[in-house]
Specification:
120 residues; alpha+beta; three-stranded antiparallel sheet; 50% helix; 29% strand; globular
């Protein structure tokens, strides 16, 4: 399974289970089409710089959809209980892992573009 494992800095107990790590599945196309980008780039053309604006609700919905508890479990109720209890440090780790999926996908696209342009 493509995904990321986040080791929690503080264990979380939710629904009579204790979690010391959380696995996030990689987002797939259907989820992306429904939720869009979890953050959008904003460019300052005058200064030649930019930054991201996070879409907090999209980040939350992605995390609820991507947290893996166990095969066959209805994941959303567990995910809500886990997200409600994770420490701030762990919430930041989860957010960064989510953004990592998008960064890696963009890098793969850029590498393919470069390969195809150098072979012309």
């Amino acid at each position: 399974m493509d995904g990321a494992v986040i080791k929690l800095t503080e264990p979380v107990t939710a629904y009579e289970r204790t979690f010391t790590e959380i696995t996030l599945r990689e987002p797939r196309g259907a989820l992306f089409m429904r939720l869009g980008q979890p953050r959008v780039p904003v460019t300052n053309f005058t200064a030649g710089s930019g930054y991201y604006v996070e879409r907090e609700e999209a980040v939350r919905e992605y995390l609820l959809a991507l947290i893996v508890v166990e095969q066959g479990d209805n994941m959303v109720p567990y995910a809500e209980g886990i997200l409600a209890k994770v420490s701030l440090a762990d919430a930041l780790q989860l957010r960064e892992a989510l953004f990592g999926f998008f960064d890696q996908a963009a890098q793969r696209i850029a590498a393919r573009r470069q390969e195809s342009s150098s072979s012309v």
